[in-house]
Amino acid sequence: MTDMGIAGYGLYLPAAVETAAELAGRSGLSQSQLHDLGIRQKFCPAKDDQPVVMAARAAEQAFRQADQAAPRDVDVIIYTGEEYKDYIAQTAAIRLQEELGCTNAYAFDLVGQGVTTIVGLRVAHDMMSGDDSIRTVLLAGGTRNVDLVNFARSETRFLFSYSASGAALILKRGCGRNLLLGTAFHTDPEMADAVYVPGGGTEIPFSADNIDSDLMFYQVSDPELMDAYLRDRWPVRLIRTLRTALTSPDLDYLALRHLAPGEREQVLSGLGLAGAQSASLEEVGHHGSNDVVISLDMGIKSGSLRNGMTVGMLSGGIGFTYAAASFKWG
Question: Kind and range of the H or E element at 116?
Answer without folding.
Answer: helix 116-130
